[in-house]
Amino acid sequence: MRILLPYHLGSGNRGCEGIARGIANIMKLKKNQFILFDISPYDYEEDSRLELNKIGELRYTKQSKVVEVARLVSRVLQKMRISFFYNQVMSSYYVSYAKTDDVIFITGGDIYCYEGTAELPNLIVKKAKKEGIKTVLFGVSMEEKFLTKEVVNGLKNYDLIITRETISAKTMAEAGLSNYLYPDPAFSLKPLKCSLPEYFDKDVVGVNFSPFTDIDELFKENMNRLIDYILLQGMEVCFIPHVFWKEQDDRRSIAKYMMKYGNRIHVLDSEKMSYLQIRYAISKCKYFVGGRTHSVISAYSTHVPCIALGYSVKARGIAGDIGMPEYTVIDSKHLKSRNDLLDAFMKLEESQVEIMQIYKGMDSYIKQIDGLRQLVLR
Questions:
Q1: pLDDT over 60 at 64, yes or no
Q2: For 278-299, what is the mean pLDDT?
Q3: pLDDT at 80 (0 to 100)
Q4: At 40, is the pLDDT very low, low, confident or very high (cuts 50, 70, 90)?
Q5: Span 121-145, mean pLDDT?
Q6: Residue 328 per-residue DSSP state
Q7: Nearest CA to 98 among 159, 145, 161, 53?
Q8: Any bridge partners for residue 57, and if so which?
Q9: How far apart are CA 302 and CA 28, in angstroms?
Q10: Distance from first CA to last CA of the chain, Å, rounded?
Q11: How far is CA 354 from CA 306, 325, 360, in A?
Q12: Roughly what angle, to the nearest 10 degrees, separates helices 313-322 and 166-174?
């Protein structure tokens, strides 16, 4: 049996790397049992540099002339908001690699949390089903508003659906979709020790957010007030980028704050680091404020008091399952005042004992993952 990840997407998003490593760890896969698909030269090179080729076989779509033509044509088609041709070619490409005893994992994450993103994965699963190939929707979060009748019908083709938090599990069940609830696979991973800048010898507040989070002036005001407060307390502020894709690069959002604060704050050169090394850096923070889900998972996993800058169901769901207080999840797209983030952070400081008590249950929460392998293989 092999596991194929057509929706790996590449380690330019360290969350995708974390999911891939988590699956390899949970499923106890040998290199020849795990195939990860990349769709750009950057992703392929990044996966190779971060040594994902040691946990699985990397496949790059450039190896297929048909796919390269589809990619070129799709650039024109997608500009016209037409994706049918691209989805047909790509779904056939992925399924063609699978054998009857293989399993295709659609690494759910949040791909069903946005409008129009269900078409390709549902098409892959539909074609796999015709070929008698098992499919698993693995670690999914689901926004109810995107569960249209068409999407639900597509989801019914999966042999197994595994949700990663209770809110999505209930949403799926209410839509008539049987599913199993397990923590995100990245929770199973351990930090990888590495050298860190000298300022980590002090009290560091790690900060991560994305262009999806940093959307308006009110967020900027909130972040500025938080940074000012942290510096006044004598702590260090360290931005920790987690995604480096050109169109979603976390560093784009960080730039304006570096212009304002200069060398009073820091940016970790995390592009050179793997997901596990970034997790190590986060584990050395006194507090963490994170927008990217898998950066927040690193904080939770290593017992760092954390504020999640959530704007979708995944942040609320994961925090709720762990038992984190509601104030630790800030809806960054619906802030009400310029003090929302600072107020939550100050409350986090005051509640360290309570937070650490919650984290005592983390080992039990993570241990739930142990049953996943048996569930998939049965």
A1: no
A2: 97
A3: 47
A4: confident
A5: 94
A6: G
A7: 159
A8: 35
A9: 22
A10: 12
A11: 12, 9, 10
A12: 120
